Amino acid sequence: MLDWLLNLNVSRELIVIIIAVLPVFELRGALPVAINLFQMPWYWAFPLALVSNMLPVPIILLFLDYLVRFVSKVHLGERLANWILERTRARSRIIQKYERIGLIIFVSIPLPFTGAWTGAIAAFLLGMKFHHAFLAILCGVIIAGAIVTSLCLLGWIGALIAGVGLCALAVLGWWKI
Predict the structure, then answer these.
(1) Does the predicted model carry a pTM greater than 0.70?
(2) Which helix (H) or strand (E) holds 126?
(3) Distance between CA atoms of 10 and 104, rounded to whole angstroms?
(4) Distances, alpha carbon 86 to alpha carbons 26, 98, 116, 139, 171, in Å
C-alpha cells in the first residue's frame, strides 16, 4: 500500500494521516512509518499521527448506532456489524471494571485491536458519556503515542524491547486462560 501511495505522488504527511485514521494500524502503525521510514522528526510525526488517529473517534461515539442500523439492513452488513460489536464486547472487560481509567489503559496498550477505534466502540457499547469517553481515549492515544515514539527512536533496541514486552503480554494472557 505504501508503494502504491508513493507512486501516486501522495505526500508523506498524507500517507501518515491515512495510516493513522485506519482501524488496526492507527497511530501505532503511522508513527513507525513517519519516524523510521520517512525520517520525519518525532515532534512533527507525533502530533500529526495523534490528531489523525483521533479524527474517527467523535464520529464513532456519536453516530455508531445509526451506522449499525444502516449497515444491518443488508444481511452481510448485519453479520459484520454483529461480529465487530461482539468482538469489542469480549475485549472490553477492563473498561467495564474500571470505566474511564480502564478505557485509558485499554487504548494506551500499543497492540492491534486496542486502539482508539476499539476503545470508542467499547465506550459506545458501555454507554459512556461523550466527553468522558473522548478524553479517556485521547489520554490513551497520547500514552500509546509516547510509547511507540520512544520505541521508534530507540531503533533496534526499541524493537527488542517491544518484542520482549509483547511476548511477556502474550505469556501473561495465556496464563490467565
Answers:
(1) yes
(2) none
(3) 33
(4) 21, 20, 17, 25, 24
